[in-house]
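= Tokenised fold =
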Amino acid sequence: MADRRTDWLAGGDRRSIARERIRAAAAELFVERGIADVGLDEIAARAGCSRATVYRHAGGKGDLVRAVINTSARTIADRVAAHVATLHGRERIVEGIIASIRAIRADPTLAHWLANIRAGGADEYLSTAPELGHIAIALTATTPDEEAARWIVRVVLALLAWPLPDPAAERHLIERFVAPTLDSRPEATTHPVSSARDIDR
């Protein structure tokens, strides 16, 4: 009988393969059943390993939620960054936030995360918000700082969790209240961000 562990992790660095396979299993289950209804035992079964292996290579459920959400958020950020690459100033701020909100709502993983917030589970997973905040700061091309990031992510989360009646109303709110605040900050700038990976530099 073949060594199951060797078969499972064959073809490269064992730790990296295990981590990615576990994260992929978690992402599939989160989309299929929702974040709140998936446990580590189900993730381990889908990945074909033990619960202990999940902990060893990918951490607990909170770690997996953050990893899966961060992956989706980075993909969205790259797409939105390309969308606003030629825009500047207030137009870039408005379009970047609106495009981000639209993309988050359309993403299966983030849609489940959003549903969890609406259902009252925000406290457990709100630690993922900083990733979205850093991306929002970068996409609007303002100078990143912790205070602005915290404020922007709360604006975005508020619109995601409690949407206005239609896109036009949301655009009006962003144009009237959000863009002027960021655009008038003394340290604001309009340097371009090529992708979400620039955030970590």
